[in-house]
Automatic annotation (TrEMBL):
Homodimer. This is FMN dependent NADH:quinone oxidoreductase. The gene is azoR. Also exhibits azoreductase activity. Catalyzes the reductive cleavage of the azo bond in aromatic azo compounds to the corresponding amines. It is an enzyme of class 1 (oxidoreductase). The keyword Oxidoreductase applies. InterPro entries: Flavodoxin_fold (IPR003680), Flavoprotein-like_sf (IPR029039), FMN-dep_NADH:Q_OxRdtase_AzoR1 (IPR050104), NADH:quinone_OxRdtase_FMN_depd (IPR023048).
């Protein structure tokens, strides 16, 4: 079985096309997950709506606890890291990480940045090798193949790779860097653009993204098919 971790980071709670002012990034993640589970009903899903229930922002106590070896942590440190431990455990368990996020002011929503800060953890998702000061970081989530699917929504157009506005997009590049740092390097990107323009520009982008999601689901399900399992033609 494949286990999916789905994160929705939009501040908008509804789905575009269904709810007034609904979220296009949520529409994409819902499409991906529903399409996946319709074809592989025995796969499992963990869902977090970090847009509506943001993770805590790290503070001094969190940093002190995180950088203290587990065997030396005081009870208050364990309590401080409890939320992080839960988020890290969800991530480690996932075979496919689905992140749905809008582009807010050229970067990721604050809730998603808070999640990143909670899961990049020494001793949990990254190891520090003191014997190699020039390159001390060892990614712990490179232990098995994991895929990340970044589903984004942008008000403007041209923010994708090679686009005229790509240099102003710090959402996907930031996520790819952070995920690669902890060992998740198989990253797939699909985006909707043109929300501000609307009309045919947006409609065509939504249609294209929908087709790309359907194709990606098929591609990943084949890639994650258990060895020795027969596949239908």
């Amino acid at each position: 079985m494949t286990h999916i971790l789905q994160l929705d980071a939009s501040a908008r709670p509804g789905l575009a096309g269904t709810d007034v002012h609904g979220s296009h990034s949520r529409f994409l993640s819902q499409r991906f997950v529903s399409r996946w589970l319709a074809q592989r009903k025995h796969d499992t899903l963990c869902y977090r709506d970090i847009g509506q229930q943001p993770p805590s922002i790290i503070n001094h106590d969190w940093i002190a606890a995180s950088f203290t070896p587990d065997e030396n942590r005081e009870p208050w440190m364990q309590e401080t890291l409890a939320e992080s431990e839960e988020l890290v455990a969800e991530l480690i368990a996932a075979d496919v990480l689905v992140i749905a996020a809008p582009l807010y002011n050229f970067g990721m929503p604050a809730a998603l940045k808070a999640w990143i800060d909670q899961i990049v953890r020494p001793g949990r998702t990254i190891e520090v090798d003191d014997s190699n000061p020039l390159d001390p970081y060892v990614a712990k989530l490179a232990d098995r193949p994991r895929h990340a699917v970044i589903l984004s929504a942008r008000g403007g157009v041209g923010f994708g790779v090679g686009g005229e506005m790509a240099h102003m997009n710090h959402l996907e590049p930031n996520l790819i860097t952070a995920l690669g740092f902890i060992g998740i390097t198989r990253v797939h990107q699909i985006a909707i653009e043109g929300q501000e323009a609307g009309g045919d520009v947006l409609a065509q982008s939504v249609a294209q993204a929908t087709r790309q999601i359907d194709a990606l689901v098929t591609e990943l399900q084949r890639a994650l098919q258990p060895v020795g399992t027969l596949q239908s033609a």
